[in-house]
Amino acid sequence: MPVTRRSFIKVLGAGSAGALAPFISARGSEGGGRTGLELLDEIGGLNGLGLAPSVIRLSSNENPKGPALIAVEALQAALGRKNRYPDEPQAMLKEAIAKYHGVGLSQVLLGCGSSEHLQIVTLAFTSRDRHLVTGAPSYELPAKIAKLIGVPVRELRVDEKLRLDLEGMVRESPGAGLVFYCNPNNPTGTMYGASETRGFLDAVLARSLEATILVDEAYFEYVDDPSYRTMIPLAVENPRVIVTRTFSKVYGIAGLRVGYAIAHEKTIAKLEPYRLANGVNNLGAAAAMASLPLKDHALREQQLNKAARDYTVKYLNENGFPCAPTQTNFVMFDIKRDAKVFAETCLKRGVAIGRQFPPLNTYARISIGTMDEMQQALPIVRAALRETRADSQGR
Asked: What string of DSSP letters covers 216-250?
């Protein structure tokens, strides 16, 4: 049966999601040490989400406005299926993703956000004698999983422009089991265009005859640089390239945990045994399927994010803190002092920002909220910068 919104809603049944609507976007927490619950408890006024209601949340790179209305409607319908396992909704979502990207069903793997894919790819392709290559800093989950299971990790520090060191990553790729390429990169926000990316991938594939490359495109929809392209066409052709996407960012359903990987069918078949079979629930499948075809919505979110991001960059630049070029929904800049202490100071003043990201210990990452949130938060950030004393840690 062809997948349509009507047929999907019919499968899910009817229900009500009024009480759940505020939790759909479910902004995550950038925890760790006193920047988490311990410090918040000192501030007081904690709510069920672990943050004081008055705190402006600029810490976890979420969409501050949440999902489209149609996704909320789909979620409401999905509540009627809450007692059923998500087999059929998952199958329908997988079919919709395959159709959207023009790939085969056997080339799509669903997951609990894209985080599940980063974990299972690391488990599937690395070992104690097949190391992981990644950036420093980059999204840390693959490195965390690798270290947990005893896999050697070779982390290449970003360059002076906060871009991934592609030459260094190529150099470290021989003998690797996995090369993790986050583009745009989190937490730095920098990205490489299609020609540079393809050149990097080709170089790794040629130099390391066994390494698999995981291309993380979590922030794909936020990029407006015309040189940027998805690597999905390469992934479906080459068994050693995998692309991951998520509904947590521009689609605003981080709390529902839905993502997917696209790769050659042989690669997907190798990953399937590692996947949690029911990792995508009925609610997440409903919201994701409703969101996927909303190209105008995604474009509008990109434009709103860009306006607030440009305002933020201009404000920080004018106050003496130039930002790295960013194509995402966050900015990173050198505050020339301990970023952990700075984050604590911001939180005490009512603004939650990103944690410290070694080895860039004097760099702060701020997620982009709504324009109103940024106009409220940035003067607070400026005041916190003035309050925070430089310390001896440096980079």
From this structure: E-TTGGG---TT---SHHHHHH-TTEEEEEESSST
